Amino acid sequence: MREKFERFMEGRYGMDQLSRFLDFAALALLIVSLFIRGMAGSILFYGAVVLILWSYFRIFSRNTHRRYAENERFLRLTGKFVSNFSNRRCHQEQKKIYKYFYCPGCKQKVRVPKGKGRICITCPKCRREFVRRS
């Protein structure tokens, strides 16, 4: 059975990040539609069905170049949000060890070790020196 499925999927695009996002969004809409009655609930339900159909259309599509371009656009749009979230999480993890300052000249973020007292910080971008307490 597995070999038949693999032969069926040859030349087809398959699953990617956009398809996964569409599936999770459809699942979320289905769950929300369970708790909402009336016209709004049915609109959410049919919206989830459309997202699932779109996802399966993309998975079984033979036009791989177009699906790849769609996924690249999706990654470009979401990349800024994901990297910003990742940077904030990393900043929170390092908050115990490092202190962050902004250069008064170019606004570049500079990381220095905590607990060193008053230190002279040199901006790596514009080479401006400023004194701060770490």
UniProtKB/TrEMBL annotation:
Keywords: Membrane, Transmembrane, Transmembrane helix. The chain crosses the membrane at residues 21-37, 43-60. This is Zn-finger containing protein.
